[in-house]
Amino acid sequence: MKYLFLILFLSVKLLVNAQVIQPGACQTQQYFNLLSNKRIAVFANHTSTINTTHLIDTLVKSNINVVKIFAPEHGFRGNADAGEKLINSIDSLTKIPIISLYGKHLKPSSSELLDVDVLLFDIQDVGVRFYTYISSLQYFIEAAIENDKQLIILDRPNPNGFYIDGPVLDSNYKSFVGMQAVPIVYGMTIGEYAQMLIGERWLDWKYTRKIDDKTSLAEMLGFEEKRKNFKLVVIPCKNYNHKSKYVLPIKPSPNLPTMQSIYWYPSIALFEGTQISEGRGTDNPFCIFGHPSFTDTLFSFTPVSKIGAKDPKYKNQKCFGWNVCHYLAQVNDKLQLSYLMNAYKMFVNKEDFFTKPKTDLPTDYFFNKLAGNNTLMQQIKNNLSEIEIRKSWQAKLNAFKKIRKKYLLYKDFY
Hints:
Elements: H1 2-19, H2 32-35, E1 39-44, E2 49-50, E3 53-54, H3 55-61, E4 65-71, E5 89-90, E6 97-100, E7 118-122, H4 133-146, E8 150-154, H5 190-199, H6 214-229, E9 232-235, H7 259-268, E10 288-291, E11 299-301, E12 319-323, H8 338-346, H9 366-371, H10 375-381, H11 386-405
Parallel strand pairs: 1-4, 1-7, 4-6, 7-8, 8-9
Antiparallel strand pairs: 2-3, 5-6, 10-12, 11-12
Helix pairs in contact: 4-5
């Protein structure tokens, strides 16, 4: 009987292990041989782990020659404020140089890649257009193509990869928080998105001179030839598909500490372009939001200075609004607009609701950069219904879905 129990136990264990989602970084047998005897530059942060061990530590212990680390927004250790200026440094554990790719320096330079043979990219994304890691990914791919370097992407599951929704970005509103014509929630992993950037020819070449300059034209054509010959290697996730509800083992950035905040982020982050607090400076950012002027019968909270939110909106001021931490069922399949629309209706000084830039140009409004257009702001001001707003997205959403399908590495959710 005990042998029967042991066999049953082992069978169950094997079945469970076979279904556990594993990021590409865990598939070391698929990429370690590609790194052997090469000089490696790694784009990574605190989420770049193999189980509980950091990828960099694993590579170094395996005698792989990591010559430098590139770090995105929030830094290599993931504790910097959103938008905070970061400086280059040395990793205290491995003594490997860290180069920040944020702020004015977004792309590795040719001089920074002279002593590099292979570029390795491993970052946990959350599948939202204005979460800036996919912008960093684009620049990293462009640098690889421009400098004839091999690029290996260690793919990771998308925790919001089970749906697609939101307005598709208008190119007039292109910025670091939105570089491509994709919806707010685009339903792709980093590896799939990278293949789309390359396949759809959405990459930019590095030269900025006018197209009628003969040298410029020759260089642009040279980049296009390199793009055609570029061979991207994506190490896929194991046991993942777009129906998966992947639970992140580590918070991807300081203000996304829980799965609730990750699920609500695509909807609530639009408040960052308004006078409404999005909950930074609380224990539940992007699940708590409000304003000091709202009625005191609503949920109350007081933002304070925290790691990753040193100077949040309305610091040390009592705000009134909403707490949606326990309402995951509402955000599992679409972007939520009702709270944004209701907050606008409740806000007394409606002319000040959307944070104004110095220029007052539509393209300079941060809300429009997040939304990807000027239309959503106008629709809210004009009191359109949610049904009407959603209908205005559909044509471009359907066109994007056709493009997306071509680059999927995993079974889709429909």
